[in-house]
Amino acid sequence: MKAILQSRAVPYLAAFGTVFFWASAFPAARYILQYYSPESIMLFRFTVAAVVLLGYCGVNKIPPPEKRDLPLFLLAGFVGLVMYSGFSVTGISLVPAGISSFVISSAPIFTLILSIVFLKEKASGLIWVGVLVSLAGLAMISSTQMEGLQLNVGILFLLVAAGCTSTFNIVQKRIVRKYTAIQSSAYSFGIAALLMWVFLPTLVREFPHAPMTANLLIVFLGLFPSAIAYFLWGFALSRAEKTIYVSSFIYLMPFFSSILAFLWLGEELPVLALLGGGIIIAGMVITNVKQRKPAPREERAE
Questions:
Q1: H or E segment to which residue 3 belongs
Q2: What DSSP character marks residue 106?
Q3: If we measure between CA atoms, which residue out of 153, 154, 188, 182 comes closest to residue 168?
Q4: Residue 31, exposed/middle/buried by CB under 10 A (0-12, 13-18, 19+)?
Q5: C-alpha span between 233 and 76 (Å, rounded)
Q6: Alpha carbon 224 to its chain's center
Q7: pLDDT digits (tens, 9 = 90+) for 163-219
Q8: In this structure, which long-range contacts are made by residues 127-131, counting pairs with CB atoms below 8 Å and at least 24 apart in sequence?
Q9: Domain ranges in the chain?
Q10: CA distance to 12, 182, 296, per residue, from 1 (Å)
């Protein structure tokens, strides 16, 4: 088991699982929004995730973070979870779906820049090429959903959301250098859920009128796209040599969302979207190719 966890493929498998779970949230949310407001969904979903993660920590006696590290967890919970959720939901309500997925999933570019500045990670030319190739595939998928180019304040909200995700990735990378993935995700969600309790009156008002299917789907969101997904994401970041190796998987989110919407909701799956998914994967492969360092030259004997 230990040998499996130390495998180089494990961070990529964890990132793949994370992005798949995140993508599954979009079709589920479309149904839930018929009965709950965005703020009620956020509170309900994040409370479920916090209870599960903190409960696991309590049962297994996993210690909380040290007081001096609480600002990092507060930053992760507030910026990476609360602000991201708020800005993304607001932006999506103002901007067509295709543009929304394009802007939000551009987060790996921001993450790459922030990792260079704050984590002092180096990015080769090959990494930049891979990022841009994936971005081209992402644009191809988004174009299949665009009914008209509407540039408005929603674009700004979505750019802020992408920036929040990138900031979360950098902060999480710092946190998992000292703490485990379960600690990182559990206490970040605990803080986020606590901050979202300002929406409790809205949730109390809407809960009696929502069907059981909507409530079960929110529990699903709290368990899989939240608790499990963020745990896997923290684990992937803790094992990845460079942040971009993991964050590039975010490009796959619109691709997975399109497939799940086709399977669950019967929505059309354009051939162009499949082609774009292939290009994204090609870009990810380029991004994750590790260039070999030239062998040091032997000193000539005089």
A1: helix 2-5
A2: T
A3: 188
A4: middle
A5: 13
A6: 12
A7: 999 999 999 999 999 999 999 999 999 999 999 999 999 999 999 999 999 999 999
A8: 127/242, 127/244, 127/287, 129/286, 130/248, 130/283, 130/284, 130/285, 130/286, 130/287, 130/288, 130/289, 131/244, 131/248, 131/283, 131/287
A9: 18-287
A10: 17, 18, 36
Spatial CB neighbours of 13, under 8 Å, sequence gap ≥ 6: none
Own/partner pairs, 255-258, CB within 8 angstroms, 24+ separation = 255/23, 255/141, 255/280, 256/19, 256/20, 256/23, 256/24, 257/23, 257/26, 257/27, 257/101, 258/141, 258/144
CA–CA–CA angle 14, 219, 268 (5° rounding):
70
In angstroms and rounded to an integer, the radius of gyration of the C-alpha atoms of the chain is: 20
Q: What's the CA gap between 223 and 52, in Å, rounded?
A: 8
Predicted confidence (pLDDT) per residue in 79-132, tens digit: 999 999 888 877 776 765 556 666 777 788 888 888 888 888 887 888 888 888
Q: Are 22 and 224 in contact (CB under 8 A)?
A: no
pTM: 0.82
Nearest partner of 279 among 139, 142, 133, judged by Cα: 133
